Amino acid sequence: MTGPRRELLLACLLVLGAVPRPVEAREEFFRMFRSDPFRSTESVTCAACHTSEAGGDELNDFGAAFDDAGQTITALLRAEFPDRFGFYSTRLADGSAFHFADPENKVAVFERDGEKYAIDLDEIARRPEDIIPPPANRMTFFITSVGMGNGGHLEGLAGADRHCQRLAEAVGGGDRTWRAYLSTSFSGRASVHAGDRIGTGPWFNAKGRLIARGVSDLHRKDNEALGKTSSLNEKGEVVTGRGDEPNRHDILTGTLADGTAAVGLNCDNWTSADEGAAMVGHHDREGGGDDGSSWNAAHASRGCSQAELQASGGDGLFYCFASGSQRHP
Predict the structure, then answer these.
(1) Is the confidence at residue 261, as pLDDT, over 90?
(2) pTM for the full model?
């Protein structure tokens, strides 16, 4: 390889900063990019990834995204950069869109409210209602943005449900019946299981992202759809967690990992801001305890007062789920 082509390849420092990589790696990138059927031909230069034609300087937005994606061009990456790729898109009446940016037609990219999701085309053919995220105002799951301010005293299950309903109404979601994900027990025996009182799903967060298809899916230990960036409050905001200030990742549940009641760990059935303790989960799936990665059963709280909940990384927050039924005036 000689002449301008060799000089161009030597000048292009792909996506790992200012340290040159072997010529073979650069050639591999160019070969892969040139073979992409959706590429824009004018983009096949060093400027595809860098802020200048010569390369070797800072990465542009595409270069940084390409690096973050492990130097793999996916359908989702194509959909994020329509200026680099050409593909077929169709827009729906509600403003959402499908981008068919996969040459093998295995996935489509669904876009709504600025969020993009890779959708398995086989799955969507079988279960469209579970796969396509609803509009943001069809939220069916959230963490309360604020607690009730009195530790574990939530005025019982009824009071916690009312709090969920009020918060949902404030953001346009009051046409559904909301239930707090909380369990109770009496006389040393389980009474109400959180997993039994929240409906059948599917559940979506305030951004329209699928959280779980149903009760069994919700309680799968390997359900990766639940986490800090997806377990949002009703306003669509991320709740601060471990490493943030303040840490609010202890979410009240009174529940075991399988959705059944954690007997005795419910702040006297959500009527005590003093004696007792509550089972809490970690919405960010991080931290210590019996199972620090559990969203609903990480450990027991230190106590039931607001101060004790805050001291151990909580704030009296809890999960709310739409039970599936429509409310009527």
Answers:
(1) yes
(2) 0.63
